[in-house]
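Ex. 9. Protein: Lipoprotein.
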Amino acid sequence: MKFSKKIVCWSSLFFVLLLGIGLAGCGKQQTNAHGHDYVKIYNRHDKLIKTLSNAKSIAYFSDFVGDKGGDSVDSKPVKTSDHAKVIYRYLMHQNKGNVNVTMKAFSNVKYMTVSNIAGIVGPVTFRVSNKEFHTFNHPKKLIRKLSK
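Predicted structure tokens for Lipoprotein:
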């Protein structure tokens, strides 16, 4: 009788452990459906234009945000005009940590705003050069460049 109680006890424990591992795995799959880093580009109407996931694209956006975010720490805070019109939104997703960073390009001012940068509270707004303004206001050219 003692032997069968031990078997039932160990079997139950084993079953609970397997169930817990299985459920934890399912939850991970749901939160990381893409399973990789990517950048999604949306127009002003919030319509998805393109999803980029190649290494060149990820590196380009990561470097741009990193450089601008680093530069903005050393400079005075910048505020966009109340009349600034968002023309494109770039959603950068990092699979590790399930982090999303959003960058907004404006059609009528040479500024961009980035929100959800790790370690920085609130959105960061920075001035962009003429070249950067043109690049992020014409994403189809940027997509072609990064897809080569």
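Check your answer against this statement. Residues 86 and 106 are 4 Å apart (CA to CA).
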